Amino acid sequence: MDFKPTLSILLHAFLLFQFLSESRARNIAKDCDNMHGVLKLQVKETQPLNPQLNIFFTPKDLKIGKIMPLFFALKDPSTSPHLLPREEADSIPFSSSKLPYLLEFFSFSKDSPQAKAMEDTFFHCEISAMNGESKFCATSLESMLEWAQEILGFDTKLGVYTTDFLKKSPVSLQNYTILQKPKEILVPKLVACHTLPYPYAVFYCHMQKGENKLFKISLLGENGDRIEAAAICHMDTKEWNHDHVAFRVLKVQPGSSPVCHFFPADNLVWVPSSSM
């Protein structure tokens, strides 16, 4: 099968390469607060909540004038891991069984923060998918696009949503107000891709069966920030791990309430382009 991305996909790919191109492997430990790590994090009741967990909300919060404390990470593109061409990515083993070799390959010691970050990434990529979930770790742009095409349909033209900063200050956590009625993006299926810490760009992509609602939300921060944020609401959470951090943050039980969350700016949400 020949995979032929549309002009819009090529444009998004170019912009993504530009965003991630000026990287250094030694900075991957700084990315341990990536979205998927946050979503999979388990915390004990005695632990204080990490400010970075201020990304969760429920559908009842989706109304004009709602004020929420939210965390949007400030990442420097010059220190973000870069995307490798598929040929180069495929030439490097990507497996926890090869971790000793990879640490030597990237010149990291086994006790370094980078080694722990890589180990965590392999854990997320190799753990079994939960019920109703399809998952894939993409090590190149080509593999990410092809997997999204496989999930959404080989004859489907792809579009992508992200969180866009229209005006950004150095403040990561602040109160944001919803400025307009949130716009629901009607899609039959979607593929969400979250960045994971690694010497080069790795995306944890997954699709969850069941009802999931995608939104674009206009936010105004108390510091003057303006964000057009992408967010998703998972309407059925009864199959989720009872220790999922979202339940503690929102003070709800599995299956008792939908769980919604915002996407960081370096995450991608692939949808059929007909929905855009």
UniProtKB/TrEMBL annotation:
Signal found in the keyword field: yes
Name assigned to this protein: BURP domain-containing protein
Signal found in the keyword field: yes
Ranges of residues in domain BURP: 56-273
UniProt entry keywords in alphabetical sequence: Signal
Pfam families per the UniProt record, alphabetical: BURP
Signal peptide (residue range): 1-25
Domain of life: Eukaryota
